[in-house]
Amino acid sequence: MIHTALKRFGCAVATAAVLATGTVTGASADVLDKVMERGTLVVGVKADYKPYGFLNPDGDIVGIEPDLAQDVADTLGVELELVPVVASNRMQFLDQGKIDLMIATMTDRPDRRKVVNILNPDYYSSGTNIIARKSAEFDEWEDLEGVPVCGIQGAFYNRKTQREFGAKIVGFTGTSEALNALQQGRCAAFVYDDSFLASRLQEAEWSEYNMPLQTIDDAPWGLAVKHGEERFARFMSGMVVKWHVDGRIVELEKEYGIKPTPFTQRMHELFSGFVPKEEG
Amino acid sequence: MEDFFQWFRWLYDETGINLTILYDSFDRERMVRGFFNTIYLSLICLALSVVIGLVGAWLQGSPLKWTRRIVQGYIQLFRNTPPLVQMYFFFFALGSLMPRMENEYGIMEPVLSNWHWAIISLSFFAGAFNVEIFRSGIEAVPRSTVEAAESLGYTRLKTYIYVVLPLAFRVCLPALNNNLVNLVKTTTLAYAIAVPEMLYVANQIWSDSVNVPEMMTFLLLAYVVLVGLLVHVMNRWERAMRLPGYGV
Description:
heterodimer, A: alpha/beta, D-Maltodextrin-Binding Protein, domain 2, 3-stranded parallel β-sheet, 11 helices, 21% strand, B: mainly alpha, MetI-like fold, two-stranded antiparallel ribbon, 10 helices, flat, transport (chain A), Solute-binding_3/MltF_N (chain A), ABC transporter substrate-binding protein (chain A), Bact_solute-bind_prot3 (chain A)
């Protein structure tokens, strides 16, 4: 059932993508025209979210999402410009036209769909967990009652962690500050996306820490474009389908040293099943 | 009262103006706390910065060379660095060097919290300006007045407290007002080290409910009211202290 629906959807998207790129010289100047005209695609990505978007020693933004952005730019045949964004400004940047496209670890939620155009299908998925010192011995979320927990300002699960589990959220502006505060002992745990935390725990610096709780709110991540940019939206949906078909995201996860998430593997299996292999 | 709050939910459904800080009790409570935290932080820093200014200005007139140099060094350090940089430096750099104590969660936590560092940093930042402001007032007091006090047997400290300061205060109040208004506005920077004042709370609320314009407007109005109150109090004080025939 899902399979057929996806198949139909996928074909529609693929056709739409072809149509979209085929009619670049359309009537009204939309974002796709502007990108082609200026020869640069401006993409908002995270710069503090290893391995999805982070700064390498040279100060360049690299990671899974910048690589995906590069794919888009290459497909369009334009240069890529990356703009670092954070949770509290990424939708505003898109809305104001500072960026053409957002690939910034954003969880796909209905209220956000009102503000920006989150594309189907979603490209990734993650949930919420904490890291804490192994000695802290947290077993369930309820253990966080009254405990100071570091977080990132603007993250949506701060509210839940505070309201439902009674934790005292100490919110910082970026992950480096929050992790530093955790190491300093300013808080007992750090609540964040499990995907990010898992990649950090592989580092020797964090060997005294673990991710003790059951991941909650496993939710998909979506790319977003501005509302009203229908042509660009169709094109981007096509790109996401293509990544799932090729298994590009699974490949990138391996390249950046994290375990492929069940979501990306499932999407790859679902999508790769119905697209005919190119002959000879 | 609850009906009044629920009216704003209706307002959201009808017009899209989303004031969660009124109809959502969770957001309301944290915003009220944020509001009072801002007032609390402002009042403490106002008081401390004025004390620092008074003491600093007195030490600046000290006959000891090294005392004057140290005060000058303090002013240069705090006046020439951005308050946000100071805040980060204090909390993340100096904070980690502080002795640690085990807290109730079994973690070795540095002794001074983010609140302490915010208060220290903001007070010393505004205090550096206050020293210079008080100096401008002190230098406006005629030398002959000080000499008259000396001839009556006043010590340097007594002259400072009973003769120089009361006159100097009246001269420098307008400049002091300006600096204190700035201080209240600068308390927003404490959000960077997770002090839950109004900007910090508003930031979290607009991220949760995607109501940026509403929260921005609220913030702006809240600061207009807060600073307006401060200015009003300072102006009344200025009038109450006016000496006929002295100054303007």
